[in-house]
Each structure stands twice: as C-alpha cells, then as structure tokens.
Amino acid sequence: MGDKTGIQWTDSTWNPVHGCSKVSPGCAHCYAETLSLRYKHTLKPWTPENASENVKLQHHLLGLPLRWRRPRRIFVNSMSDLFHEQVPDEFIEKVFGVMLSADQHIFQVLTKRPERMRDFMLERTDSRWASTAFEWPAPNIWLGTSVENQHFADERIPLLLDTPAAVRFLSCEPLLGPIQFAEGWLTGFCDATCDHFFKTGGCRCSRGMGNSKFGPWPRLHWVITGGESGAHHRPFIPAWAASVRDQCLAAGVAYFHKQGSGQRPGMHQELDGRLWHEFPKVEVDA
Ligand code: SF4
C-alpha cells in the first residue's frame, strides 16, 4: 500500500494519517479529499467542523517504511497533514520515531500548518528528544510548507525558517499568483547570537543560518512549483513559476517544476521549453 505515486518529486507515499480539513485557498480542490470521498474512506466534506470524523490515525501503517528495504524518497501524508490539530503529539512522535529508524529513506513532510510543526520541532530540539540515539534534526527528514500566493508565503515561510530541519522546502502548488521571496528567505548569514546557537554550543545549523565564515547559507533548500489539475483547475501563469525559478537559480536553491494547470495531473511539465527537476544537495553540518 502506498508504494506507487504519480507525484514526480517523490518515489512513494506513506499515509499514517488519513483525512484533513481545509485551511487556505490552495485547499479548495484538494485531490486527497476528492479521492477519499470517491472511495468512501471519509464520508463528509473536509471542513473544520467535520475534522474529528474525517481525520483518522492509521496505526496499522506506522511501520510500513521499516519494511521497505530499497532506499527511496517518501512523501509523508499525501492524504492528510501530519500537523493537523486532530493528530496528537504522541502520534507525531511515533511517526518521527519511524522516520528516524528507517534512515535508509528520505522522508518529505509537507504541511500547511507550519506553526505547529515549528513548535513541535523546537520543543524536541530543546529537550534533546532524539539526540542520544539519532542525529537531530535528522538528515533524512525534510520539512516543508505549502504556499500558494504571496499572502501565505509571507505567513508560512518565516515559520518554516524558524524550524530546525536539515532540509527545508516549499511546495508552491497550486501556484495561484506571483511570489516574491523576501531578502534572507532563500539564503542568509548566521549572526551567532541566536538562542539555539548557545543551547547547542555552536552552529550546526539546525535553524538553517549556517556560519558566516562559510558565506551565504541556504535557508530554503528546495522549491517546487506547479499548477492545479482537475476539472475545476484554476488559471496558472507560467511567468509566476518562471519568477520563482529565477529567484531560486540566483540564490543557488534547487528548483523543481511539476506541471502547469490542466484537466489531468502531469500536464505541461516544461517551463520555457525544458524540464526543471532539481533536488536539494544536502549539507547538514557547518
Ligand atoms: S492541507 Fe492539504 S490535505 Fe489538508 S485539505 Fe488542504 S490540500 Fe487537502
């Protein structure tokens, strides 16, 4: 179950949680809701009011990646959001436990609730939750947030940047408008004055600022763009994605363009006449 996916930027999906509720315009035509209702995994629209019925913890799927021996990229919760309000901290810890143990894989955790993800990661970083047995933040756990327009970029990217993670990424999909990255979002210098620097006794840069002696340091490591697919797909202007791409290229940030908009997923994958399928070059330590 979950072994195959049509999502080009990953190899497999793993859904220890199923079901979600909508939080922003990017959710309007959520493919996960469409599939879930079609196959009757959930019975009611994915509204906040129905979340207690729709969000289901799938304990029986927790150990699945441990049984996959071939290393792969795994998109965590393609049918939900790991940091949904209905998912208890204890369950998220179990998911992280599996991701830490199955370190032959890369796990791609994508949320539209980056505030909770930040708080979860900061609490466990400061308490050294996993530090005795595992490298923390783990090199094989990539944390990302979805932003569909400038408003949610302004709201969510600073939260992601304050999240301890070896790799941080953005999914700008469905891209619904232009996005201009603020200075210091893509790369930055460490001022070595942050709380984290002192608590950890040096810069490893789990908060992503790196050490100034190494020059500008990536703060975001990977950006994905894409248009909307499905019967009700909204307009996608290639210049929006091209602008994101150009900002990434100028900053040395890996860029992946998934598709334009269209009836079916995967249509119009080229941007300016070619595919853009870059992945982050992982650098964890300063
Ligand atoms: S956060 Fe993701 S899974 Fe949840 S409703 Fe929005 S698009 Fe769907």
Report on this model:
This protein is α/β, with parallel strands linked by helices and 286 residues long. It is built from eight helices and eleven strands. It has helices at 31-38, 51-54, 64-67, 89-101, 114-126, 150-161, 195-200, 238-251; strands spanning 12-14, 17-18, 56-57, 73-76, 106-111, 141-146, 167-172, 187-188, 217-218, 222-225, 254-257. The strands form three sheets. Strands 1-4-5-6-7-10-11 form a seven-stranded parallel β-sheet. Strands 2-3 form a two-stranded antiparallel ribbon. α5 packs parallel to α6 (150-161). Iron/sulfur cluster (SF4) is lined by residues 20-23, 27, 30, 32-33, 46, 80-81, 112. Residues 20-23, 27, 30, 32-33, 46, 80-81, 112 line the site of iron/sulfur cluster.
List keywords for this structure.
286 residues, 8 helices, two-stranded antiparallel sheet, alpha/beta, 26% helix, binds iron/sulfur cluster, seven-stranded parallel sheet
